[in-house]
Design a protein that fits this description.
single chain, Immunoglobulin-like, 366 residues, 4% helix, mainly beta
Length: 366
């Protein structure tokens, strides 16, 4: 059975499909769409990222809104905006708790950007950018977008320019998608062809631009000067990763499909899906682990008598420990793994896989 589970886990790794049919009831931010879409016209997404990197997921929180549409980072906290919420939520990066809300007048929030105690919000409906003070909660500025902009998504302010996408329509079948740079001083607009078929969230890591593509559930790191993709990562949570932010060390993604916020680590999961969409929970403790201690693994909400393969790998992907466990009558796996003498101090990833789901956590041994 162990061989079978490993084989199925490998199939999960290799079976990421990026062809998504056009939808009639929702747009590709995952929100209700009032436009009539011809589902027979260019129905398939043809863009496929190459050499997709799958990052480790370090933290996961539930979104404060069930329809997250944008994300930004203010130097200490995340800010999330949602569709028809008419609020901005200030969120802790430690536990996901809501610390502050700002009322806004925007129904279709499709992008957020923080700069100097102000948050700029992209209004997809009115095609304008409104800026709110995080101190007074008042709207302090409004920028109207060009009449040529059809369906704006994503937002980031960099070097006195607003960067946003125009997907040309609510579905990826629309052609001519672009990413625009709007100079705030001269109001001049410069555009480049998008790399995805429905670009959404935008952020900048101090050197490169990052832009999400919803149909392929990916984020591309882009060299602004040469307008070339440096690398592309798969983002967790499903087909609507509407927001992305950089906190100075890590990327964060908010996904409307799972209504969740994810912090992505710098390492990769050696090709394994990081987050499962079912209700099972996976915890390891203590973490960090002092050499000589046993590592406790707790998985709950599984089916009864379900085989789970537990694997520990180092940062290069080398397998250091492997054993199959079976869930009990409560659908749980509770095991203390003795790793003494097997693993030197360092960083490792513990991966739990069943026949259909894969989970992972980073562990540190001191």
């Amino acid at each position: 059975m162990k061989t079978k589970i490993k084989f199925i886990a490998l199939l999960i790794i290799m079976s990421q499909q990026f062809t998504i049919k056009a939808q009639i009831s929702v747009d590709y931010m995952g929100f209700p769409n009032s436009e009539v879409i011809d589902s027979l016209e260019n129905p398939e997404v043809i863009y496929t990222p190459k050499d997709l990197i799958i990052p480790i997921v370090e933290r996961v929180f539930k979104s404060p809104t069930t329809v997250p549409a944008g994300m930004t980072f203010d130097g200490e906290y995340l800010w999330i905006g949602g569709y028809y919420e008419r609020k901005l939520f200030k969120v802790s990066t430690i536990d996901g708790s809501v610390l502050q809300t700002i009322p806004i007048t925007i129904n279709k929030v499709y992008g957020l950007s923080y700069n100097n105690n102000q948050i700029s919000v992209l209004d997809n409906d009115a095609k304008k950018i409104l800026t709110y003070s995080t101190i007074t909660s008042l709207c302090v500025d409004t920028v109207l977008l060009s009449n040529n902009i059809v369906y704006p998504t994503g937002l980031f302010e960099l070097d006195n320019k607003f960067i946003f996408n125009d997907t040309k329509g609510p579905q990826p079948s629309a052609i001519g998608d672009s990413t625009y740079f709007l100079n705030k001083s001269s109001n001049s607009l410069k555009g480049s062809a998008s790399f995805g078929t429905f670009s959404s969230g935008i952020t900048h890591d101090g050197q490169y631009l990052w832009i999400n593509d919803n149909p392929t559930q990916s984020a591309s790191k882009i060299d602004i000067i040469n307008w070339q993709v440096i690398e592309t990562i798969q983002v967790p949570g499903g087909p609507y990763p509407n927001g992305i932010a950089w906190d100075g060390f890590n990327l964060w993604v908010v996904n409307n499909a799972s209504d969740s916020i994810y912090m992505l680590g710098k390492g990769t999961a050696t090709g394994i899906n990081n987050i499962s969409n079912n209700t099972a929970t996976f915890n390891v403790f203590p973490n960090p682990l002092i050499n000589g201690q046993s590592l406790n693994v707790a998985i709950s909400s599984l089916s009864v008598d379900k085989e789970i393969l537990i694997v520990v790998v180092n940062v290069t992907g080398e397998e250091m420990f492997s054993k199959v466990y079976v869930s009990d009558l409560q659908g749980e796996v509770l095991e203390a793994i003795d790793l003494e003498g097997r693993l030197p101090a360092g960083t490792y990833f513990i991966i739990a896989s069943s026949e259909t789901k894969v989970y992972n956590k980073k562990i540190i041994i001191k």
